[in-house]
Design a protein that fits this description.
Elements: H1 11-19, E1 21-22, E2 29-30, E3 41-46, E4 49-54, H2 55-64, E5 71-74, E6 87-90, H3 92-101, H4 111-131, E7 133-135, E8 142-144, E9 148-150, E10 158-162, H5 163-176
Antiparallel strand pairs: 1-2, 3-4, 5-6, 7-8, 9-10
């Protein structure tokens, strides 16, 4: 948690931290600064430098009386929650397993939905090949597939630039090379 340990916090700073928590019947919501993921930050200043603590992690540290080992896990899945009985210490793998079990992790996406997305992509590529045309990524003109060079790694077997754009690109690269 930065250069400053929780044990270095003054009683006034701890009281200020606790005053920013909105107590309610369910989650106790952090009412201060939050990061882009919704987790709260509590800032203190030492030697003209700001040190920030994650609010849920600071709440668990105050509950345990020591720094948590590993990560702080939420049983409520609510990032700004600071209620100490909603917080657990655990490992990163336990946290990831929680996310998968609760459907908040890409690994939790249903296999059938993933298979459907792959199938739709394959159908789009097959339809493009069947139509016999492709849009050049450089000049943005739709041209017949014979206007594109072969490229085995591409799903449709063709380069992304048409032959005329690829030739122009190659010429400009060779002109820029030092002699």
């Amino acid at each position: 948690m930065g250069q400053l340990a929780v044990s270095d916090l003054t009683t006034q700073e701890i009281a200020r931290f606790q005053s920013r928590i909105q107590h309610g019947p369910g989650c106790w919501i952090w009412d201060g600064e939050v990061n882009r993921h919704g987790y709260g930050y509590f800032a203190v200043y030492r030697n003209r430098r700001r040190v920030r603590f994650l609010s849920h992690r600071l709440a668990l540290t105050l509950k345990l009386g020591r720094e948590p080992n590993g990560v702080t896990r939420h049983t409520c899945d609510n990032p700004p929650c600071c209620r100490d009985d909603h917080l657990l210490e655990g490992s990163r793998s336990e946290n990831n397993l929680d996310a998968v079990a609760r459907g908040r992790h890409p690994g939790a996406w249903p296999q059938a939905a993933h298979a459907a997305r792959v199938e739709r992509a394959r159908n789009r590529i097959a339809a493009r090949i069947a139509s016999g045309v492709k849009r050049c990524a450089r000049c943005k003109i739709v041209k017949p597939l014979r206007e594109f060079g072969p490229y085995r790694k591409a799903a449709d077997g063709c380069q992304s630039y048409c032959r005329s754009c690829m030739n122009a690109y190659s010429r400009s690269r060779s002109e820029r090379r030092p002699a």
